[in-house]
Amino acid sequence: MLFMIGMGLGDENDVTAKGDAAIRSSSLVVLEMYTSILGVNTERLAEKYGKEIVIADREMVESEADKILEPAREGNVAFLVVGDVMAATTHTDLALRALDMGIEVRVIHNASIMNAVASCGLQLYNFGQTITVPFWTDKWQPDSFFEKILHNSRGGLHTLCLLDIKVKEPDFQAMARGKRKFLPPRYMTVRQAAAILLEIGKRRREEGVDTTVTTLSGSTLRVCEPTSLAVAVCRIGMATQLITSGTLEQLARSDCGPPLHSLVLVGETHELEDALLARMAIDAEPGKGPRPAPGDAVGELPPPARATLLEPEDIEVWDIPAAGDPRPGGEASIGAAVVGVPAAAAAATSADAASS
């Protein structure tokens, strides 16, 4: 049997009782690590269950699935996914392959960003289509998802933006020298996503597109404009969870800490939602800002996580690639209005790239 088990969004303690029993009954335990981040290291997971944890990358799940499925013909295999199993298409494909091989599949659900995003105070039934904001390069700058944002906005709906993850990307320069090497993992930040969305809005307005829309109820929303309201949803479910609201312009110069980050573009709101967003504002008074994280299951509640608004002198224009940019990955900016990572972090990134 193939157990497909959602791990939830925090740590090993978020696994459900059903999931826990399934893992303990399995002779092979595989952890998928390319669509999200587990809040603890795999050693802690292995220690809890007394089993070796096999780490699966995209290549293993999509191209070498037999390594997971063949053992499930004779015994139990636990396939672990951070969040909920069925939130990613690749996992549905794995389930279909198992069924085609005559293997019984049992899905054990858990919390994912798709429902935990309600922690930001916006009502789930007022969300429209979810989009993914991908990293841009100097030669590839997709923006087709903007049409979905417009569609949601016309209906007055919020838009959940999942932010790109790059794990185990090949280093083509090393490959040209005959070496098989991978680039360090990259996780898009709220700051980077906000910068890309602002740039897309700017380009569309230059093309004559009206990014101010009238909703079905007659209210007005500004789409991907500097004053557009958005919510940063970071490390949701972890002890360091951060939820903070602000304009896209503010979030494009924010430091929301380590990954994973998501971003919500706010549609029409009612009074209760407005009150919650105001309390979470990035520039709110101390004690009235982002809500505290839930904390560990058996520990003190940690101090509230807060985002930081960076000053102009602390920011290097770095996020959006420009054509012909010579730096590794082509990570530069298109215009001075687009902001990026802190200068110190940018310098460290440049040094790391130079030494690799």
Automatic annotation (TrEMBL):
* One of the record's GO molecular function terms: diphthine methyl ester synthase activity
Task: Write down the chemical reaction(s) this protein catalyses.
Answer: 2-[(3S)-amino-3-carboxypropyl]-L-histidyl-[translation elongation factor 2] + 4 S-adenosyl-L-methionine = diphthine methyl ester-[translation elongation factor 2] + 4 S-adenosyl-L-homocysteine + 3 H(+)
- Give the top-level enzyme category: transferase
Tetrapyrrole methylase domain: which residues? 1-251
Identify the InterPro entries for this entry.
4pyrrol_Mease, 4pyrrol_Methylase_sf, 4pyrrole_Mease_sub1, 4pyrrole_Mease_sub2, Dphthn_synthase
Pathway involvement? Answer: Protein modification; peptidyl-diphthamide biosynthesis
**Pfam families, per database record:** TP_methylase (PF00590)
Sorted UniProt keywords: Methyltransferase, S-adenosyl-L-methionine, Transferase
Q: Does the keyword Amino-acid biosynthesis apply?
A: no
What's its EC?
A: 2.1.1.314
Instruction: Give one GO biological process term.
Output: protein histidyl modification to diphthamide
Superkingdom of origin organism: Eukaryota
Q: Which family does it belong to?
A: Belongs to the diphthine synthase family.
Q: Which NCBIfam families match?
A: dph5
Described by its record, this protein's role is as follows:
S-adenosyl-L-methionine-dependent methyltransferase that catalyzes four methylations of the modified target histidine residue in translation elongation factor 2 (EF-2), to form an intermediate called diphthine methyl ester. The four successive methylation reactions represent the second step of diphthamide biosynthesis.
Name used for this protein in its record: diphthine methyl ester synthase
